[in-house]
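Propose amino acids for all 128 sites.
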């Protein structure tokens, strides 16, 4: 079982930046691929960024490509999401999630069903 705790959300003006963090309660953090999802009111939860176990491979939704960067520090058991050029439509609850233990080291999971552990979420609100 992996427990995930997000932090770093808040209120920011359009065009601003935020960095989200996700702390994982496991000593084998490097054995899990990770992702960031978001869910806006009335919408389905969507994957916006994913990263493989080592951090060497990533994938992004078109809506955030070029503005958001996912990264991880396996020594600190922490996942990050650097968000820049924020837009009002980025307003949502942001969740980090992990796969099961031991997925292929080069694999970047892009389907929601591949993620099994979830954080509680952190609110990001972008004002005009």
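Proposal:
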């Amino acid at each position: 079982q992996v427990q995930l705790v997000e932090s770093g959300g808040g209120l920011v003006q359009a065009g601003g930046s935020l960095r989200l963090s996700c702390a994982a309660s496991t000593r084998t953090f490097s054995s899990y691929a990770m992702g960031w999802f978001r869910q806006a009111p009335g919408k389905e939860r969507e994957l916006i960024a994913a990263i493989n176990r080592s951090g060497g491979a990533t994938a992004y939704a078109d809506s955030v490509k070029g503005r958001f960067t996912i990264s991880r520090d396996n020594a600190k058991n922490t996942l990050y999401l650097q968000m820049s050029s924020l837009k009002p439509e980025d307003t949502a609850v942001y969740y980090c999630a992990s796969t099961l233990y031991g997925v292929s080291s080069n694999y970047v999971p892009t389907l929601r069903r591949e993620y099994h552990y979830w954080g509680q979420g952190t609110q990001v609100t972008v004002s005009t």
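The mean pLDDT is 97. Residues 38 and 94 are 4 Å apart (CA to CA).
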